[in-house]
Amino acid sequence: MKLTILGSGSALPVTNRNPSGYLLDIGEETILLDSGAGTSRQIVRAGRSIDEIDKIFFSHFHIDHIGDLPSLLFALKNENFEVKNLDIYAHPDFAHFLETYQELYGDWIMDENPFYQFNPLEKGTYNFHNFDLRIYPARHRPESYIYCFEAEDKTLVYTGDTEYCVGLIKAAENADLLLTECSFPDSHPVEAHLSPKKIQRVIKHSTPEKIVLTHLYPENDREDLVDEIKLGTETEVTRAEDLQTFVI
Question: Under CATH, domain 2-247 is a member of which superfamily?
Fold first, then answer.
């Protein structure tokens, strides 16, 4: 598996961090995890193409995680791209968002022969051709999911946005890479998000091998963030940067 950070930022615009978006290459497939504003451009900046995407998984419905989807679908209709079947996955309620986009944009994002389809997901385990997927409930929004991708004896967990919760501990257990939000500092904790002390609790109870910190709000985007979390643990901790890659 290979992870590419497209956006390590938050809902607040900053110069160096795009909103949430990640490419995950597993075997022959390219997966997009969330698609905040500007994700399509970040894919190009990473030396990739939007028509490489086979599947999109959305962790929840906040705008900084789904905002670029209409632009992405609009671009894929352009004759410059070889459009293949694109599968979109999320909580069942995401169907409402797609239907609304289709009402708003019509044939700008739709064809007589649809090039994308929505696949509703529930909590549980799914078996795909190149990977297995376990889905746990996050503590953020009612539709929020934590995704655990497993392939070739390796595990990547993507938290989306979440508070410390049982689902997070179960998902992160012995993960090879935990891609976790770390939105706010302990001095300014925000309900339904993680802070350094909460991530230390995750390390204690789940012992992931490597942690990549993302979804960084400006007040928590600090040089000492990694050292603060890593204190007293052997777990490798990295602060994500846009366009950075990790091989798992």
Answer: Ribonuclease Z/Hydroxyacylglutathione hydrolase-like (3.60.15.10)
